[in-house]
TrEMBL record:
One GO biological process term: regulation of DNA-templated transcription initiation
Lineage of source species: Bacteria, Pseudomonadati, Pseudomonadota, Gammaproteobacteria, Alteromonadales
Domain of life of the organism encoding this protein: Bacteria
InterPro entries in the record: LysR_subst-bd
Protein name: LysR substrate binding domain-containing protein
One Pfam family recorded for the sequence: LysR_substrate
Key words of the record: Activator
Domain LysR substrate-binding: 52-125
Keyword Membrane (UniProt): no
Keyword Lipoprotein applies: no
């Protein structure tokens, strides 16, 4: 935000809204919104005979950290479906999380808009989707962007 306030940077791409009470007069612009996709390897899927989403309770999970913007929404969705994930690790660093899920021993989730990359590059299987769990990406800028982004 300091970089925005002194015009060192033009905008910030983030998954969180600008905090209320900020001393920088900036604007949130919703860029894109996506549901969530759940992934696992074929070998892990063979260990369950339940249907999605109930079998999510039986698998080990890699989960986003509690400070993640989407974590609360994902946790609410899991609670709604009476799913108690067996969380084996939590990550605030997506690069570190990536090295763990590449081993293929856990279920993980990601925004649906990038699911093709996981399937194509890493041979993970899509085990289900939750469109009601939304990941949102914003551009935060000092001036109102007039290029038509999310203009209604």
């Amino acid at each position: 935000m300091a970089g925005l306030s002194i015009n060192k940077i033009d905008c910030i791409l983030t998954d969180q809204l600008l905090q209320l009470g900020s001393h920088v007069r900036a604007y949130n612009h919703l860029l894109v919104e996506s549901g969530f996709t759940f992934f696992a390897t074929e070998a892990l899927l063979k260990t369950s005979n339940k249907e999605f989403p109930q079998y999510l309770s039986g698998f080990p999970w890699l989960m986003l950290g509690k400070k993640s913007a989407v974590r609360m929404r994902l946790s609410s969705w899991l609670d709604k479906h009476n799913i108690s994930p067996n969380i084996v690790a939590e990550f605030d660093d997506s690069a570190l999380m990536k090295s763990f899920w590449q081993a293929g021993f856990c279920v993980f989730s990601s925004p649906t808009l990038i699911e093709k990359d996981f399937v194509d590059k890493y041979d993970f299987k899509i085990i289900g989707r939750a469109e009601e769990v939304k990941e949102q990406y914003y551009i935060i800028a000092i001036i109102e962007i007039v290029t038509g982004i999310n203009k209604q």
